[in-house]
Amino acid sequence: MPDLQGSDPKAYNLQDALGPNMTVEVRTEEHPDDRAARLVRERREHLFGLWVKGAVFLLLVAALLYSGWRLQDPALDPHNRELAVRVITSIITGFLGYFVGRREGA
User: Where does the chain cross the membrane (predicted)?
Assistant: First the structure.
């Protein structure tokens, strides 16, 4: 490692003060135009994520309702009945796992 203090006896070595597991970072101030562009991009990404989550939620609810509606048909063959029950239990289990997992991670 090069000598960071150089020849100045009053120089301060940050690495010695921080220790081996810490680092120091120097950042420049964000330009207002860059900040505005970053905020617009983050908002757009957030809204897109909400739309995707909403679309997936609506698709799963539609599949849940359709499977429940198909189960009401007394003439439904056993294979399709088992498939509908499997779809319903999978969706409900997925919803429960998602919401319990979000609570644990928060």
Answer: 48-71, 83-101
Residue with tokens 């909400």: 50
Residue positions counted in the chain: 106
Widest pairwise Cα distance in the chain: 92
Q: Which helix (H) or strand (E) holds 12?
A: none
Distance CA 92, CA 68 (A): 12
Tens-place pLDDT, residues 11-43: 777 777 777 788 877 888 989 999 999 999 999
For residue 14 the two structure tokens come to 């940050």
Q: CA-to-CA distance for 64 and 88, rounded, in angstroms?
A: 6
Are the C-beta atoms of residues 76 and 84 closer than 8 Å to each other? yes
CA distance 13 to 37: 37
Count Cβ atoms below 10 Å from residue 70 Cβ, excluding itself.
16
